């Protein structure tokens, strides 16, 4: 317990950093992933091609490599993010958006084609039909896979530890060195930090899933 | 993609170095002066560790495989090379064990004590700082080298950093969880510390101007400076003292005294300086340091 009170400042700020990394990246990834999913089902071939290319690139690249490229690679073309936190948000968002897009696309494909056809027959444009008819139904069916993506994202924030962001895993590395005799307490504190984020998320995902489920 | 080329250049450099050093190794085999002379008619007290090792004709030594100049694995020969390795060979030779009969084991910072305690290695020569906490679980012969925390800056030292006090208000990089990083946090809080998981990322950040300095043990910085093609330089003003010792099993005082005797002889008769010149000294171009006083605690 002594250990907890001595290091409460570091652990608290590390926890807040992990949480804000996950939340900010999660929102960005959701927006970008939705746009990408719209592109992948659009009737315009170049848009479809572009989104497919994006998904294949980011889904098949290790997250660490994405981090490395954004932290050190783009300097070679004279680009630089204003801070390492923003670098981490960018890497996590770009990477996770690919998974959001694919989860959402599976939801879109699960909406019976008759829905989109009826919407178009009523005179809605493709964009209107997507936004007002197809996507609302698609989101309902993809709550569980999106929940998986979110929990994976919350844990993926740990990669930022290797790129100068002092989040929970970085605090683990620091505390483990100074408190070699209390390693178990250090691990427990850091694991608890992640569980505080992921366990309520899992519960919330179940609640949302039950509330929005459609019986077909 | 300049960075790709840089990586390729590094790989090429590594191969060249490896090639050079294996040549040096071959020469060493031919000229008996380079390889330590193996003691032949040695007589050790019955039941001592020295007698047991001499009888077995082999010794297991733990060293680092990733420290240029001190202990770096040569991928071609499969054996490590460096100053620590040469020190271990000196001791083995005095035990009547030829260098080909030494069994090398990689030890990293986290596993040195357990390896000694479990008897997986007979000794550890691995940039191993002597301190009181470690003396509780292992014995130390030596020290045979005094390292210290130092600072690496860009070529020409544009920020005029001469010591840790000049780091105030500057951005400085180290590795998260390392003792040098903690030292900066505790004693130089004015410095803005950035921490990565490996030093090569600190070097990248120094190269592209994201940080103004990199700090850790001078031994590690020396390797980075040597691989930087003149882009970095060492401030050369160590501000901590890290005495490197040889880790041995706790309580084996006879063996510890023996190793200390060997070290003192080697300090005197030039084998120490010779080992330095062929390893770390050939990277830095510096002369062998004055050997530290052995601490027979």
Automatic annotation (TrEMBL), chain A:
Molecular function GO labels: transmembrane transporter activity
Membrane topology annotation: Multi-pass membrane protein
CDD domains: TM_PBP2
Protein name in UniProt: Amino acid ABC transporter membrane protein 1, PAAT family
Residues spanning the membrane: 12-36, 57-75, 81-101, 183-205
Compartments where located: Cell membrane
Recorded GO CC terms: ATP-binding cassette (ABC) transporter complex
Keywords: Amino-acid transport, Cell membrane, Membrane, Transmembrane, Transmembrane helix, Transport
Annotated organism of origin: Geodermatophilus aquaeductus
NCBIfam families in the record: HEQRo_perm_3TM (TIGR01726)
Domain ABC transmembrane type-1: 15-205
From TrEMBL, chain B:
Solute-binding protein family 3/N-terminal domain: residues covered: 58-283
Record-level GO cellular component terms: extracellular region; outer membrane-bounded periplasmic space
Pfam family, one: SBP_bac_3
Extent of the signal sequence: 1-24
Superkingdom of origin organism: Bacteria
Keyword Flavoprotein applies: no
InterPro entries: Bact_solute-bind_prot3, SBP_3_CS, Solute-binding_3/MltF_N
The family this protein is said to belong to: Belongs to the bacterial solute-binding protein 3 family.
PANTHER family, per database record: ABC TRANSPORTER GLUTAMINE-BINDING PROTEIN GLNH, AMINO ACID ABC TRANSPORTER PERMEASE
Record's protein name: Amino acid ABC transporter substrate-binding protein, PAAT family
